[in-house]
From TrEMBL:
<feature type="binding site">
    <location>
        <begin position="169"/>
        <end position="171"/>
    </location>
    <ligand>
        <name>NAD(+)</name>
    </ligand>
</feature>
<feature type="binding site">
    <location>
        <begin position="8"/>
        <end position="27"/>
    </location>
    <ligand>
        <name>NAD(+)</name>
    </ligand>
</feature>
<feature type="active site" description="Proton acceptor">
    <location>
        <position position="103"/>
    </location>
</feature>
<keyword id="KW-0963">Cytoplasm</keyword>
<feature type="binding site">
    <location>
        <begin position="85"/>
        <end position="88"/>
    </location>
    <ligand>
        <name>NAD(+)</name>
    </ligand>
</feature>
<protein>
    <recommendedName>
        <fullName>NAD-dependent protein deacylase</fullName>
        <ecNumber>2.3.1.286</ecNumber>
    </recommendedName>
</protein>
<dbReference type="InterPro" id="IPR026590">
    <property type="entry name" value="Ssirtuin_cat_dom"/>
</dbReference>
<feature type="binding site">
    <location>
        <position position="114"/>
    </location>
    <ligand>
        <name>Zn(2+)</name>
    </ligand>
</feature>
<dbReference type="InterPro" id="IPR050134">
    <property type="entry name" value="NAD-dep_sirtuin_deacylases"/>
</dbReference>
<dbReference type="InterPro" id="IPR027546">
    <property type="entry name" value="Sirtuin_class_III"/>
</dbReference>
<dbReference type="InterPro" id="IPR003000">
    <property type="entry name" value="Sirtuin"/>
</dbReference>
<feature type="binding site">
    <location>
        <position position="111"/>
    </location>
    <ligand>
        <name>Zn(2+)</name>
    </ligand>
</feature>
<dbReference type="InterPro" id="IPR026591">
    <property type="entry name" value="Sirtuin_cat_small_dom_sf"/>
</dbReference>
<keyword id="KW-0808">Transferase</keyword>
<feature type="binding site">
    <location>
        <position position="52"/>
    </location>
    <ligand>
        <name>substrate</name>
    </ligand>
</feature>
<feature type="binding site">
    <location>
        <begin position="195"/>
        <end position="197"/>
    </location>
    <ligand>
        <name>NAD(+)</name>
    </ligand>
</feature>
<feature type="domain" description="Deacetylase sirtuin-type">
    <location>
        <begin position="1"/>
        <end position="226"/>
    </location>
</feature>
Length: 226
């Protein structure tokens, strides 16, 4: 079976990584415009780097949970395309063989000048020179608001050609990810939502399982791997 899985912040929440829209969310200490837009980076690159350096440290301390490990098990039994909105590496450390990071990764650095990419160090600074062009324009390799997510042609193809599309721990409020279930259904693909609560696009799913990711994801995977 060909299964395309989309994961959001909810799958990493039980590993201690705070979610974007929760009441105790990571972002409420800062305005989104200040830390998650190209304009915010231009205004105060030092603030943006402090913000993502802390996120990188938090992600490094976090450990994969049962939901991450279950998806790795699923890939051993089916043809799985795993797409994540998350910028942590918990899927990889949980054993998933290949992960498409549509919003970038905390483990990557990007030159805002020439576009060169390289592995991020734990603490990055705006004045760090680009290894390719030498300019001090280092930024996190994260897709900010107003920027185009990565690998979208590949992702839409995976959604369209799947036998089953699953969304796990997503709010359904950030596009284009929020439109994937509807796109899947228009192409005759079965859809399932696994979430702590109904999302903003729950109506687009033909099946739904509500509960903690560490419970509902392993249980769902078990039904597919019998």
């Amino acid at each position: 079976m060909r299964i395309t899985v989309l994961t959001g912040a909810g799958i990493s929440a039980e590993s201690g990584i705070r979610t974007f829209r929760a009441t105790d969310g990571l972002w409420e200490e800062h305005r989104i415009e200040d830390v998650a837009t190209p304009q915010g980076f231009q205004r105060d690159p030092a603030l943006v780097h402090r913000f993502y350096n802390q996120r990188r440290a938090d992600a490094a301390r976090a450990q994969p949970n049962a939901a991450h490990r279950a998806l790795a098990q699923l890939a051993q039994h089916h043809q799985v395309t795993l797409v994540t909105q998350n910028v942590d590496d918990l899927h990889e450390r949980g054993g998933s063989p290949e992960v498409i990071h549509m919003h970038g990764s905390l483990l990557g650095a990007l030159c805002a000048g020439c576009g060169h990419r390289w592995p991020a160090v734990l603490v990055m600074r705006a004045l760090d020179p680009c290894p390719a062009c030498g300019k001090p324009l280092t930024r996190p390799d994260i897709v900010w608001f107003g920027e185009i997510p990565y690998h979208m042609d590949r992702i839409w193809e995976a959604v369209q050609s799947a036998d089953l599309f699953a969304a796990i721990g997503t709010s359904g409020m950030v596009y284009p990810a929020a439109g994937m279930a509807q796109y899947a259904r228009r192409n005759g693909v079965d859809t399932i939502e696994l979430n702590l609560a109904s999302s903003a696009v729950s109506r687009d799913f033909t099946d739904r399982r509500i509960g903690k990711a560490t419970k509902v994801v392993p249980d769902w995977v078990a039904t597919l791997c019998r």
